[in-house]
């Protein structure tokens, strides 16, 4: 999965979203049909589907219910957006990876010379620092730390 092109990743993301919109007992059959003759795509989609199930179990609620209060229109840029090259602690911003209601996720690289590592760096929006939102952020961090899949940031 490390070699996925952006188009293939978008296809995989769409497949996972559509699978999760179905009843649990219909998801695998849907993926098998939707992936057609592409067994590698099917294998990746099934692995991501399993990870989504693990995350939902760990969160104690469905992923959709967990994310619903946090999701907003992801196209609007805000005053806190960071340009590539900006330093945040020991990390240098490479580019934006995604955005949602809680904040922006950036692709960043360790810049202090201590070691080489590319990371996903999530910055929580101003005003989103309530106890409830921060508790959800900590749970998200804990869940992600326990998941092991090449398509999930560590």
Describe how the helices and strands are arranged:
Blueprint: H1 6-20, H2 27-35, H3 39-59, H4 63-67, E1 87-88, E2 91-99, E3 103-110, E4 118-124, H5 131-146
Antiparallel strand pairs: 1-2, 2-3, 3-4
User: Can you count the helices?
Assistant: 5
Radius of gyration: 17 Å
Q: What's the arrangement of strands in the largest beta sheet?
A: 1-2-3-4
Helix content: 40-55%
Dominant shape: globular
Strand content: 15-25%
Low-confidence stretches: 58-63, 69-79
Structural class: alpha+beta
Terminal Cα span:
15 Å
Mean pLDDT: 75
Order of helices and strands: HHHHEEEEH
* Counted beta strands: 4
Main beta-sheet strand count, sense and barrel state: 4 strands, antiparallel
Structural write-up:
A four-stranded antiparallel beta sheet has the order 1-2-3-4, with no helix packed on it. Helices cover 43% and strands 17% of the residues. The protein is built from five helices and four strands; from the N terminus they run ααααββββα. α1 crosses α3 and α2 runs antiparallel to α3. It starts with 5 loop residues before the first helix and ends in an 8-residue tail after the last helix. The chain is globular and about 45 Å long. It has 154 residues and is α+β, with helices and mostly antiparallel strands.
